[in-house]
């Protein structure tokens, strides 16, 4: 297999060619073309469940509306994923990491795989919602009306939970760039609601204990997601004091 990969790299130019220690657009495109389906299979093995429909492509997200310079990938409900192929895409991640990790991640495609897993987890999360609807299971309107009626828009508390689940899955698969937690004082939650520290790192730490306990009992994240989706999303107060939210779920 190793020799086949080497031949592919030579013939098709997959080399993660570095210019100023940043992957080229061509390298990112080739990575997704060659490894996208394999990453999806790996995720499904972790989930112990299938992801029925998804479509992954690459594009320069700086040309899109509502662009954020920290944006590595984008999910469009219900099944489309766009991985950012900007030349500078890695810079924003690297500058937030300790120096040893900066050096490590400059020379790997790990960051791309982490983004694919995160975005595919959005597809899976919303697939669980749709399957629950089809089976006429109880679902909080928080997880249905917002996204289905308003396209890709959700309220912030729903987004907080969904992003936390996606980043949690990336971490558990050993692919997240971040292995440390971020805690935030209650006075800063609202002010930082759109900051990646809250939306991704704090949110993943927020759901971790609950997810770990459900997966330990069931072996799959599916049951945990169904519990979350059955219940209304947390309020701001419950995001600040997470025991209030998870006691409510119990």
Summarize the structure in words.
The protein has eleven helices and five strands. By secondary structure, it is mainly alpha-helical. Helix 2 crosses helix 5 and helix 8 crosses helix 9.
Report a brief summary of the structure.
This protein is mainly alpha-helical. The protein has helices spanning 2-12, 25-47, 89-94, 99-106, 110-134, 145-150, 156-172, 196-218, 222-230, 236-240, 242-249; strands at residues 18-19, 22-23, 55-59, 73-76, 80-84.
Calculate the mean pLDDT score and round it.
79
Ends apart, CA distance between termini:
48 Å
N-to-C SSE series? HEEHEEEHHHHHHHHH
Strand content: 5-15%
Strand order within the widest sheet? 3-5-4
Radius of gyration: 18 Å
Topology:
Elements (H helix, E strand, L loop, with lengths): L1 H11 L5 E2 L2 E2 L1 H23 L7 E5 L13 E4 L3 E5 L4 H6 L4 H8 L3 H25 L10 H6 L5 H17 L23 H23 L3 H9 L5 H5 L1 H8 L1
Parallel strand pairs: 3-5
Antiparallel strand pairs: 1-2, 4-5
Helix pairs in contact: 2-5, 5-7, 5-9, 7-8, 8-9
């Amino acid at each position: 297999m190793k020799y086949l990969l080497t031949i592919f790299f030579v013939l098709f130019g997959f080399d993660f060619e570095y210019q100023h220690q940043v992957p080229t657009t061509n390298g990112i495109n080739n990575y997704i073309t060659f490894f996208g389906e394999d990453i999806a299979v790996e995720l499904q093995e972790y989930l112990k469940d299938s992801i029925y429909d998804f479509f992954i492509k690459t594009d320069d997200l700086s040309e899109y509306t509502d662009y954020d310079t920290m944006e590595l990938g984008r999910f469009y409900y219900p099944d489309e994923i766009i991985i950012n192929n900007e030349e500078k895409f890695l810079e924003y991640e690297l500058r937030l990491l300790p120096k040893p990790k900066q050096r490590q991640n400059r020379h790997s495609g790990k960051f791309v795989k982490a983004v694919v897993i995160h975005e595919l987890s959005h597809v899976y999360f919303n697939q669980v919602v749709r399957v629950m609807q089809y089976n006429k299971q109880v679902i909080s309107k928080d997880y249905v009306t917002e996204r289905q009626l308003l396209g890709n828009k959700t309220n912030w508390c729903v987004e907080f939970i969904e992003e936390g689940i996606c980043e949690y899955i990336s971490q558990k698969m050993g692919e997240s760039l971040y292995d440390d937690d971020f805690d935030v004082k209650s006075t800063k939650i609202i002010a930082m609601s759109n900051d990646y520290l809250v939306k991704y790192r704090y949110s993943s730490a927020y759901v971790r204990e609950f997810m770990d306990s459900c997966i330990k009992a069931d072996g799959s994240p599916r049951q945990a997601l169904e519990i979350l989706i059955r219940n209304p999303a947390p309020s701001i107060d419950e995001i600040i004091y997470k025991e209030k939210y998870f006691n409510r779920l119990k």
